[in-house]
């Protein structure tokens, strides 16, 4: 098999998987936003968890499609790189950082709900978390836009920020790669540090609570009273795993270490897209309210399908008679 045939096979496999991730991620994030909005409309109240899920779903939906468009630019629409590279990278960084912030606040939401420590700073933050959440969400968006503007301002003043689709897989030339990676790191480091603090508090609370329960010999490791801790640890663990995979794979891909014409580039492309898609599916399965809404929606679809089939069968029987 020659190189051209191998490259065609690479593009076919990658495009199929990436398209599937976009479809699954769009459905998962769209359902998460829709279900949260319906719940808010029925209760006539916008809760903290629903607010975060709506912002997270919208940002990941936009982030996923921006990432997909970047992939199309690097493989199929290479003629657009010189015209739209800077704008696409600005939009990408904005939605990437904002989705990371919103996922971090979701982890912090789990933290303030189950962690009980006597630290005065944490007590004040826990008491005022719901009240300050709108400011935190809007502030996260403002920070994401501000860090993304750093890249946009550099691209507008740098004449070297032009198309170079053969040197970099996502259309960013080698001279701009370091600047893009540094800007991306600066924008993603603060939410990741906040997330690490929340994760440490959850694990610390779980360890302390488990030790206390064992000392009293009133429970086992799977006692229902620890379910909230286990659920939070699982959610935090999944978020950390997918975020780490996203950072590593995207940086390898963007730095040119994993060539877009190699099997390594295939894996990096697929793994990069798994963060805003597969992780959102896990959020749906781990959130009891969203899971119940999904089951109820699926049951209604099944009932509608069965009713339609029965109606078609009865119509066919009448016509035969």
From TrEMBL:
TM helices/strands, residue ranges: 20-40, 52-77, 89-112, 133-152, 180-207, 228-250, 262-285
Xref: SUPFAM superfamilies: Family A G protein-coupled receptor-like
InterPro entries according to UniProt: TAS2R
GO cellular component, one term: membrane
UniProt key word 4Fe-4S: no
GO BP field: detection of chemical stimulus involved in sensory perception of bitter taste
Membrane topology, record value: Multi-pass membrane protein
Cross-referenced Gene3D superfamilies: Rhodopsin 7-helix transmembrane proteins
Annotated localization: Membrane
GO MF annotations in UniProt: bitter taste receptor activity; G protein-coupled receptor activity
Record's keyword terms, sorted: G-protein coupled receptor, Membrane, Receptor, Sensory transduction, Taste, Transducer, Transmembrane, Transmembrane helix
Family, as annotated: Belongs to the G-protein coupled receptor T2R family.
The protein, known as: Taste receptor type 2
């Amino acid at each position: 098999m020659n190189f051209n045939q191998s490259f065609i096979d690479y593009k076919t496999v990658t495009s199929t998987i990436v398209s599937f991730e976009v479809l699954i991620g769009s459905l998962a994030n769209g359902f998460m936003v829709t279900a949260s909005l319906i719940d808010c409309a029925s209760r006539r109240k916008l809760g903290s968890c629903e607010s975060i899920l709506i912002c997270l779903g919208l940002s990941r939906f936009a982030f996923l499609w921006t990432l997909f468009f970047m992939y199309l630019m690097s493989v199929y629409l290479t003629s657009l790189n010189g015209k739209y590279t800077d704008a696409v990278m600005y939009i990408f960084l904005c939605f990437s950082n904002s989705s990371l912030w919103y996922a971090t606040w979701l982890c912090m939401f789990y933290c303030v709900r189950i962690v009980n420590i006597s630290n005065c700073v944490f007590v004040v933050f826990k008491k005022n978390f719901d009240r300050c959440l709108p400011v935190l969400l809007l502030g996260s968006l403002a920070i994401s836009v501000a860090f993304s503007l750093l890249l946009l301002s550099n691209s507008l003043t740098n004449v070297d920020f032009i198309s170079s689709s053969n040197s970099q897989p996502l259309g960013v030339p080698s001279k701009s790669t370091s600047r893009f990676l540094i800007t991306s790191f600066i924008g993603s480091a603060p939410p990741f540090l906040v997330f690490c603090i929340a994760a440490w508090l959850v694990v610390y609370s779980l360890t302390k609570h488990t030790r206390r329960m064992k000392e009293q010999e009133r429970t086992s490791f799977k006692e229902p009273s620890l379910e909230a801790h286990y659920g939070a640890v699982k959610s935090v663990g999944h978020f950390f795993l997918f975020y780490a995979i996203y950072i590593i794979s995207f940086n390898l891909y963007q730095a040119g270490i994993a060539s877009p014409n190699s099997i390594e580039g295939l894996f990096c492309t697929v793994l990069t897209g798994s963060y805003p898609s597969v992780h959102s599916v896990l959020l749906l399965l781990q959130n009891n309210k969203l899971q119940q809404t999904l089951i109820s929606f699926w049951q209604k679809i099944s009932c509608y399908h069965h009713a339609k089939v029965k109606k078609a069968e009865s119509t066919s029987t009448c016509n035969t008679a």
